[in-house]
Design brief:
This protein has two domains: 63 residues, no CATH class; 212 residues, Rod shape-determining protein MreC, domain 2 (Thrombin, subunit H, Beta Barrel). 21% of the residues are buried. The protein is elongated and about 110 Å long. The strands form three sheets. Strands 3-4-7-6-5-14 form a six-stranded antiparallel β-barrel. It is an alpha+beta fold. Helix content is 33%, strand content 31%.
Length: 281
């Protein structure tokens, strides 16, 4: 009863406003129905409004789907890397064939998320969201689209620890693109964007800006991975060597996704190296 009384009180108080709104709606309806121009303008306005709303919802949905799309792209990139000629080993012949009769798979790439990362300490590590259950083992290489990240140092069932390139024990076999001369690339221990190559023969011609690539001599990393470019170099006449400073291509402060590299021939190579070492004993 009280509710009905309240409704009647509201109607009595605002009856002029309510009547005006009803008449306005009726008038608009009659105008839209009878006048083509007004009907067209109304429909266009309604379409514009609804289109804007739908567009906004689609943009929100697209944004929410970005992570899934990014994950799919990373997985596709890993597959494409595995199919590159540099990831295959020639069996015989001179030509690449799709049926893999001339090449066999050498490297396999797995996409992993970086869940923790240090880069400002004297010794730096990363933690990945993949472990032995995902096929990860110690001494696998870890790279990003921008260069070498480091090497797997410890593994649990679902996680793994990576010894970062920004670590005094990490040394990467590399080569200069222009001359093909190889050396060892190591972090300077200070600036996370710089590394050094020492003991390059003084007779080697060095060009500022030349690319530094992985050599492929290691059983951990494929050859040809871009590491950075030569920033500067200096000669030591006493030792007859040169020291090269490299501007690294990778930004270690913003690593989110990485590739864990598995060399399918690593065990065979290591076994051969043991036998070779025994020959010299």
């Amino acid at each position: 009863m009280i509710g009905v009384i309240n409704i009647l009180a509201i109607l009595k108080r605002f009856h002029f406003q309510i009547l005006f709104a009803l008449l306005l709606i009726i008038g608009l309806g009659l105008t839209i129905q009878q006048k083509n121009y007004q009907r067209t303008k109304f429909i266009n306005s309604a379409n514009f409004l609804s289109g804007g709303i739908y567009s906004s919802f689609n943009n929100i949905e697209d944004y929410l789907n970005l992570k899934q799309i990014n994950d799919e792209l990373q997985a596709e990139n890993a597959l494409l890397r595995s199919e590159l000629i540099s990831s295959l080993k020639k069996i015989n012949g001179e030509y690449y064939q799709k049926d893999d009769t001339l090449y066999s798979q050498k490297y396999v790439y797995r996409v992993a998320d970086v869940i923790s990362n240090s880069y400002s300490r004297p010794t730096n590590y990363l933690t990945l969201n993949m472990g032995s259950n995902d096929g990860i083992i110690e001494e696998m290489g870890v790279i990003s689209p921008s260069g070498v990240v480091g090497m797997v140092g410890a593994v649990s069932d679902n996680y793994s620890t990576v010894i970062s390139f920004l670590h005094p024990k990490t040394v990467i076999s590399c080569r200069l693109k222009s001359s093909g001369v190889s050396g060892l690339l190591k972090w300077t221990g200070k600036d996370i964007s710089e590394a050094q190559i020492n003991d390059i023969p003084i007779t080697t011609r060095i060009e500022k800006g030349d690319s530094v690539l992985t050599s492929g001599y290691s059983s951990v990393f494929p050859g040809g991975i871009y590491m950075g470019h030569i920033k500067s170099f200096e000669k030591d006449l006493e030792s007859q060597t040169q020291k090269i400073t490299v501007d690294l291509s990778i930004d270690f402060s913003s690593l989110n996704k990485v590739y864990v590299v598995e060399n399918l021939y690593k065990s065979e190579l290591e076994e051969l190296n043991k036998k070779t070492a025994q020959l010299s004993e």
